[in-house]
Design brief:
binds calcium ion; six-stranded mixed beta sheet; 163 residues; Gamma-B Crystallin, domain 1
Length: 163
Amino acid sequence: MLRMKIAFVLSVMFFILISATPTLSQGRPFQGCIITLEPIQDGEQFSRVQDRRCFDSVSSYQAALSAANYKITDFYDWTDYVNLIATYLGPQPCSAGYSYGVPNVGSSLNDRFESATTGAGCNNVTVFENANYGGARLPCNGLSTCNTFGLLNNRVTSWTASP
Ligand SMILES: [Ca+2]
Ligand SMILES: [Ca+2]
């Protein structure tokens, strides 16, 4: 009986581990973009984009991830962190003086995101239905992850990240 309980607990832990592991590409060819942002400047609402590059292989994408920048957030095409399609980098972690915001993810990424993981202290990610932080919003406050955007799945057009 004890052995069965242990086996059950182990299988649940394994499932949690598997379901929380980001998946770069599943069931379709990889296509992901790396976008490097500036923190939002005083008196402004949006980050400026320093660089934006898209890749159609995991190896070229991973080679392009710059160690000089922090990973602000990863967005996935599907829920539960499956099929990474966008990585946003920034020169500073989120902190009292530094937050990030994208007013429009662009036509190739628009209305596609369904989950996100965050990094660099950017624990408060909010996704918005429309451009310029408009329409319905979903905060992932206080969590380092957001495994589904619920009603905003496949509707996200802008987002913000702050500590
Ligand atoms: Ca999607
Ligand atoms: Ca939208």
